[in-house]
Design brief:
Elements lengths: L2 H25 L9 H6 L8 H9 L3 H7 L1 H23 L3 H13 L2 H21 L2
Length: 134
């Protein structure tokens, strides 16, 4: 993937994510609000169930609640805060630090034992979501 394509895709995903958060912010007060297609279909929480509520908890400054809802939400919130600044910095300074970091992450995640650890963490998060009854 080229640098420009990565930055474009990341920008579109960030815009969609912020749009989703604005939509969810309005719906968050409803206890029956569940945007997860997997959960709505199967009745079982998916590995990322609760991410929206977790990011909204971070937006309200409730980091402990965000961690309990879904630990991945903290990572998502961090990325949604940092990436726009990182990309704008790269574009303004004509650098490619985000691109190089992404490529390094891709290479590292491609190592068998690292990939296994990441998959196990996702499975543990999924088990946590099901256990909590998300």
């Amino acid at each position: 993937m080229t640098r420009n394509r990565l930055y474009l895709i990341t920008g579109v995903l960030l815009a969609a994510g912020y749009g989703w958060l604005l939509y969810a912010w309005d719906k968050a007060h409803r206890s029956d609000f569940t945007p997860c297609i997997f959960k709505n279909t199967t009745g079982i929480a998916c590995p990322s169930c609760g991410n929206t509520r977790s990011v909204l908890a971070v937006a309200h400054g409730d980091f402990a609640d965000a961690l309990l809802i879904n630990p991945l939400g903290l990572l998502m919130a961090l990325l949604m805060i940092a990436l726009p600044f990182w990309i704008v910095y790269d574009l303004a300074a004509k650098k490619d630090t985000f691109y190089k970091s992404f490529r390094k992450f891709e290479q590292t995640a491609g190592i068998r034992w690292v990939a296994i650890v990441l998959v196990v963490l996702i499975i543990l998060n999924w088990a946590w979501n099901i256990h909590k009854g998300l």
